[in-house]
Design goal:
The chain is 78% helix and 0% strand. It contains seven helices and no strands. The two termini are 35 Å apart. It binds fe (ii) ion (2 copies). One fe (ii) ion binds next to helix 3, helix 4 and helix 5.
Length: 209
């Protein structure tokens, strides 16, 4: 599947479900895997929008909903950093072997996974501190939150426009099967079929957004 076909399939998937009903089994498998990857980016984007709306409270002189911000960052550090990014790193390794031109981008994105993980954990600690009554600088939380937003948005933009189409072209079903076997799979605790109790408040915000 070339990148144009992939992007058309993503568009169709968003409008009609996960993949076209008339796709061949091979394409259905590929489209399913790639579409789920894309859907996770859409979900993360929604959380970043929600985080940004909370950060905007600082500018208005209001107090943001720190609990909501913590739930967002807890999810990012316990789902995105634990499953989404490690899985991408396995995909990156296979793309790297097959397209030397992609190496620089792949290396940058891999480095960003580590940076995002560190930045996310620091933000969780700071938000935890606020909720525990510690005095934290609003300016510092605002700056850390905005830096995280900017980096992850740009990171996902590059993955969506450059890496997903490359993966669609270069990886086959046996690659995806090996990648799935190598990673510890678990249920998405927020956007999956069952929302974990810890994310109940965040889920309500998402439905109302
Ligand atoms: Fe990534
Ligand atoms: Fe990603």
């Amino acid at each position: 599947m070339n990148s144009g076909a992939f992007l058309m399939q993503v568009k169709a998937s968003r409008a009609r479900g996960l993949f076209p009903a008339d796709a061949r089994p091979y394409d259905r498998f590929m489209a399913d895997t790639l579409t789920l990857w894309h859907v996770e980016h859409v979900n993360f984007g929604r959380l970043l929008d929600l985080l940004e709306r909370q950060l905007a409270s600082f500018e208005r002189g209001d107090s943001p909903d720190y609990e909501l911000m913590l739930e967002i960052m807890y999810y990012m550090t316990h789902y995105s950093d634990v499953l989404h990014h490690p899985k991408e790193d396995l995909v990156f390794a296979r793309i790297r072997e097959r397209d030397a031109n992609a190496c620089a981008t792949i290396d940058r994105l891999s480095g960003e996974h580590a940076t995002l993980k560190r930045a996310g954990q620091e933000l969780v600690q700071e938000l935890d501190g606020v909720l525990d009554g510690s005095i934290m600088s609003r300016k510092r939380i605002d700056a850390a939150g905005r830096a995280y937003l900017a980096m992850l948005r740009e990171h996902m933009r590059v993955e969506e426009t450059e890496i997903l189409p490359l993966a669609a072209r270069l990886l086959g079903p046996s690659d995806w099967a090996s990648i799935d076997a190598a990673i510890r799979q678990f249920h998405d605790p927020l956007f999956g079929t069952r929302t974990e109790r810890r994310y109940a408040g965040l889920a309500r915000h998402i439905r109302g957004a």
